Amino acid sequence: MADIRNNFVGIKSPNPFWLASAPPTDKAYNVERAFKAGWGGVVWKTLGEEGPPIVNVNGPRYGAIWGADRRLLGLNNIELITDRDLYLNLREIKQVKKNWPDRALIVSLMVPCEEQAWKKILPLVEETEADGIELNFGCPHGMSERGMGSAVGQVPEYIEMVARWCKASTRMPVIVKLTPNITDIRYPARAAKAGGADAVSLINTISSITSVDLDTFSPEPSIDGKGSHGGYCGPAVKPIALNMVAEIARDSETAGLPISGIGGVTTWRDAAEFLALGAGNVQVCTAAMTYGFKIVEELKEGLSNWMDSKGHRTLDDITGRATPNVTDWQYLNLNYVTKAKIDQEACIQCGRCHIACEDTSHQAITSMVDGRRHFEVIEEECVGCNLCVNVCPVEGCITMVPLKAGARDRRTGRKVEKTYANWTQHPNNPSVRTAAE
Amino acid sequence: MEPKQLAEGIAAGRISRKKIAENFSDLHPPLDAHEAAVAADRCYFCYDAPCMTACPTSIDIPLFIRQISTGDANGAAKTIFDQNILGGMCARVCPTETLCEQACVRMEAEGKPVEIGLLQRFATDSLMDGKKHPYKRAKATGKHVAVAGAGPAGLACAHRLALKGHKVSVYEARRKPGGLNEYGIAAYKTVDDFARREVDFVLAIGGIDVKYGADIGGAITLDGLREGHDAVFVGMGLGGVNALGLGGARPEGVEDAVDFIAALRQAKDKSKIAVGRRVVVIGGGMTAVDCAVQAKLLGAEEVTICYRRGQEHMNASAFEQELAAASGVTIRHWLAPHRLKSKGGRLTGVELEYTTLSKGKLAGTGETITLAADQVFSAIGQTLDTVALGERLELRKGRIRTKADGRTSLKGVWAGGDCTDRGDDLTVTAVAQGRDAAESIHAALMG
Ligand SMILES: Cc1cc2nc3c(=O)[nH]c(=O)nc-3n(C[C@H](O)[C@H](O)[C@H](O)COP(=O)(O)OP(=O)(O)OC[C@H]3O[C@@H](n4cnc5c(N)ncnc54)[C@H](O)[C@@H]3O)c2cc1C
Ligand SMILES: Cc1cc2nc3c(=O)[nH]c(=O)nc-3n(C[C@H](O)[C@H](O)[C@H](O)COP(=O)(O)O)c2cc1C
Ligand code: SF4
Ligand code: SF4
Ligand code: SF4
Q1: Structural domains present in chain B
Q2: Which positions ≥6 away from B52 have C-beta within 8 Å?
Q3: Which one of A11, A243, A288, A301 has the minimum C-beta count within 10 Å?
Q4: Nearest CA to CA, how far is B51 from chain A (Å)?
Q5: A432 lines ligand 4 (CB under 6 A)
Q6: Identity of the residue in B34, B37, B48 whose CB atom sits nearest the CB atom of A351
Q7: Which site among B47, B61, B66, B106 would you substitute to test the A interface, given the most A Cβ atoms closer than 10 Å to its Cβ?
Q8: A44-95 pLDDT, tens per residue?
Q9: How far, in Å, CA of B128 to CA of B366, rounded?
């Protein structure tokens, strides 16, 4: 049996599945249920400074997009940080940690960008014996207008400064949660590291409008006819999150900085992919909000079964295994030539591959052969782009077959080289030519 | 058991009125909006879609399903009506299992086609519930076309002609329009007086005048219509029925299936329709199945279809045969009616002879069996009433010879639907031929 115990910056949990700071971790009631269900850890819903509680809207806070049969694909929210009293939260945190010593309990914090504010709250958190803190620099709505959340997360200097204050004022590990609402995720990550943060977690939600009501012309979710951009999460954001994790994992300046992967984790496969790209563990929100806490059983079992089937013994055997395979476009092998191939037995003759290639790509798939409906790749035209594979409704029906070295590419007429050659070496590359001159 | 279930002879009200109403409710209940969205989502929006090729009216199926999935059910309905103005009835009665759904690529993929028929019903119901006719007539052409018969073929032809701006007079022998949609289709396929509502919808385009009780072959003749109009379309269906041919006097209890079915369709209260305790239906097509199933639904104890050939030869589709079996009807093959048995002028049974194929031809084996019966229905095919048409119209295999565009041997006369040699006893084919004949008439009149 694979060992899926997790050690993230010294914080131990029985599995790498934490609930992200969000409604599922808003109070003792939820967190108790989550731990009973088997979650490895939670990041408590973000606490703010002492004072009158935060006020949320009293109308709808969520917008969504759906796939077939109303499967939730993307969720958007305009909720703020906790709207419960600070001391009530702290008391509950302390009790829950006491009840569940083997689980990770991290406290998410967002206070104004002043050293005093942080110095004031950190001892209070420490007193709960929580395992660590997560600095919420990610929230794209509501708090940023008040100079917090993504307003800080978008300015690397602030991140560095706050991380440094926190490291100086507490013994607890400091995790910096990053906002994706920025052009290059590596800058805030580097700043977190420079400030001494123990780890980063990402992504927070993405600024978004999910839809517009075409009767009222109000964006959704609609509050009395008006809407505001919210934060997007759920399965739809996973590809964006994976890339950002990979970018940080492979950046030489942040290499080795622990990453807690967040964004669209819904199944054990998603989690394994985050781990492979360099995350030390994962955090989950939307999937739990969609299906309840029970999904953690599938997450744990699935990950462990897959690890067993592949002979991976611990999480360290997986973390970062895909990172070295993420490279820049210019280093991709231009001598790797593939051609689409249709398995005629599996083909159900829907013609989607044909029309996709015909209308929008390279006119490389037939629709009619000898007067019969027949879909077949014309190798002379196929550039190997993979579009047909992606539009074909039958999984595995079209495959991309690499040409062997020495074979002739019927499109270019050239022989396939066995050597690796990339754009930096290509004669059409202006910088190569300049060098030659 | 219901008290009157086992009453001897032919009796009404074998089961309660409530139970009968339940039995005759919608065979395929309509999809609700969510079910439609889920069903629509299964469509792959195929290129040159095989389902569309398989539809006799060539409805753009991938397009209308995509329109449903984007929440534009009325747009979807318009896509359907553009090709098939009786798309609502076709959605209910087409044997989709042998037409579009048979060709659906998901049939190949997983043996479970996209539910095209139900989706078509969802779209057409949605638009028709709005009561707004979706078409506007073109400017009046001044041409006047006669249409003989207000069945699916005649209605489709009339609508398309009216759309093009022609004036149309429909001559219908019966008191009600719709043809077999009104008098033939099984009651559980078209509930809530849909046939009538659909005709109203079709006629709402305007420019179509329907004359009822206008029997061609009586006071009105085909030649008379030709003289009084710029063109004539014949869509009279098959008025006659084949005789059982058993000779002798017809004992009480022997009926034509189509009459029984028509009476059922027209009955305000189906529990008033009498049915035998033991019923035998002779035939192997859709009419035989519809008759047998409906007899069973009325409360007959034993209903047996006897067909003179094997199962593989039956015209009723596999789905129809399953429906019969599921309703409790017994289907027996290789049995041909031989003699009707009666007592005091009342039917008591039917003697049948076993049959076999000998050198490709059907032959009796000499062995017989007698089935007790108080009611026998004959469902062995309908025939064209050639007398009504006069003698000059050329026939082929007993039906009006037509070209692909519906032209007959007579100048200025087109035909479509069951009455022609290209008819195949399907509502949808009748619609296609009526529509295409209208296009041909329009081209001829305006060309
Ligand atoms: C019992 C039964 C069940 C069926 N079930 C199905 C089914 O489930 N699905 C399916 O697709 N098809 C079914 N069919 C076949 C389908 O109903 C026909 O193919 C279709 O109705 C043919 O249309 P039509 O317009 O050619 O003829 P009809 O529907 O027969 O219409 C002909 C019209 O012409 C009128 N007419 C006849 N003679 C004259 C005259 N001399 N003067 C003036 N008017 C005249 C008639 O009154 C009638 O209104 C069924 C048929 C029967 C008998
Ligand atoms: C294969 C592909 C290539 C694209 N190339 C370009 C490009 O060269 N320049 C550009 O501005 N956008 C490009 N785009 C982005 C599209 O213009 C568009 O902004 C994007 O696909 C989002 O729109 P959509 O998802 O609704 O199609 C490309 C998109 C695709 C799928
Ligand atoms: S790989 Fe691209 S170019 Fe080749 S057949 Fe498929 S869609 Fe066309
Ligand atoms: S998309 Fe796939 S199933 Fe459809 S025709 Fe092409 S190869 Fe066949
Ligand atoms: S064949 Fe099936 S999947 Fe393809 S367009 Fe038609 S209904 Fe849709």
Answers
A1: 4-25+241-381 (3.50.50.60), 33-128 (1.10.1060.10), 144-239+384-445 (3.50.50.60)
A2: B58, B59, B60, B61, B62, B100
A3: A301
A4: 10
A5: no
A6: B48
A7: B47
A8: 999 999 988 888 888 889 999 998 888 999 999 998 899 999 999 999 999 9
A9: 56
Nearest to A230 by CA among A111, A10, A76, A92: A76
Q: Is the C-beta atom of B44 inside 6 A of ligand 5?
A: yes
List, in sequence order, every residue forming a beta bridge with A260; answer none if it has no partner.
Answer: A201, A281
From the list A70, A351, A394, the residue facing B109 with the nearest CB is A394
Q: How far is CA A225 from CA A74, A143, A213, A230, in A?
A: 22, 22, 9, 15
Q: Which atom of ligand 4 is nearest to the CA of A342?
A: 7
Using alpha carbons, select from A124, A126, A125, A137 the residue that is nearest to residue A176.
A137
The distance of B409 to chain A (nearest Cα, Å) reads 34
Three-state DSSP state, A213: strand
Beta-carbon contacts of B415 under 8 Å, excluding residues fewer than 6 positions away, are: B233, B234, B235, B400, B402, B406, B408, B437
In this complex, do B109 and A348 lie within 8 Å of one another by their Cβ atoms? Answer: yes
d(CA B374, CA B342) in angstroms, rounded, equals: 9
Cα–Cα dist A165/A142, whole Å: 24
Whether A285 sits among the annotated catalytic residues: the reply is no
SS3 (DSSP) at A256: coil
Q: What is the mean pLDDT of chain A?
A: 95
For helices A115-126 and A156-169, the axis angle rounded to 10 degrees is: 40
Question: Which one of A113, A139, A382, A392 is the catalytic residue?
Answer: A139
Q: Which ligand is nearest to the CA of A398?
A: 4
Under the banding of pLDDT at 50, 70 and 90, the label for residue A432 is: confident
Task: Look at residue A142 in the predicted model and tell me its pLDDT.
Answer: 66
Q: What is the pLDDT of residue B91?
A: 98
pLDDT for the residue numbered A434? 59
What average pLDDT does range B108-135 have in this prediction? Answer: 95
Contact B48 A68 (CB under 8 A): no
Find, in chain B, the residue whose alpha carbon is nearest to that of A392. Answer: B44
Q: Interhelix angle for B152-163 vs B194-203, to 10°?
A: 20
| pLDDT tens per residue, range A275-303 | 999 999 999 999 999 999 999 999 999 99
**Record: contact A349-B49, CB cut-off 8 A:** no
pTM of the shown model: 0.89
DSSP code per residue over A35-89: HHHT-SEEEEEEE--SSSPP---SS--EEEEE-GGG-EEEEEE---S--S-HHHH
Span B180-239, pLDDT tens digits: 999 999 999 999 999 999 999 999 999 999 999 999 988 899 999 999 999 999 999 998
Q: Give the SS3 label for residue A258.
A: coil
Spatial contact of B242 and B382, defined as CB atoms under 8 Å apart: yes
What is the spatial distance between Cα B308 and Cα B323, in angstroms, rounded to a whole number?
Answer: 20
Whether A350 contacts chain B with CB within 8 A: yes
Higher per-residue pLDDT: A431 or A139: A431
B50/A348 CB distance under 8 A: no
Closest CA to A389 of A406, A407, A375: A375
Pairs of residues, one from chain A and one from chain B, whose beta carbons lie less than 8 Å apart? 36
Residues 382-411 of A with CB under 8 A from B: 393-394
Ligand 1 site, residue B152, Cβ cutoff 6 A: yes
In this prediction, residues B387-411 reach a mean pLDDT of: 93
Classify burial at B136, counting beta carbons within 10 Å of its beta carbon; exposed 0-12, middle 13-18, buried 19 or more: exposed
Q: Tell me: the pLDDT tens digits for A11-55?
A: 999 999 999 999 999 999 999 999 999 999 999 999 999 988 888
